[in-house]
Design goal:
about 90 residues, mainly alpha, 3 helices, about 75% helix, globular
């Protein structure tokens, strides 16, 4: 996958990941960050096919979830970090 496609994919997925992170945080609250991250990954894995078709996020079409799972983990970590720094998630 070329660099531009990766950038477009990440840009398209940040709002989805942000919403999933917030949903998991609201449902689980304080607790183990790695478990919450894994729950977000599980949600993403479950809706991956939907994102390309019904949700219309064309950047995900033809992209294997397993192939970009490490990239998604990096994005999740940074979304959570930003939420912590800005006070969206308070401890």
């Amino acid at each position: 996958m070329d660099f531009i496609k990766i950038i477009r994919l990440v840009a398209a997925l940040v709002p989805v990941i942000q919403a999933l992170v917030q949903m998991v945080e609201n449902m689980v609250g304080s607790g183990n960050g790695e478990q919450k991250k894994e729950q977000v990954m599980n949600f993403l894995a479950g809706i991956w096919g939907f994102l390309a078709t019904d949700a219309g996020i064309k950047e995900t079409k033809g992209v294997n979830f397993i192939d970009i799972k490490p990239l998604l983990g990096f994005v999740i970590d940074n979304v959570v970090s930003l939420a912590n720094v800005t006070g969206i998630f308070s401890k």
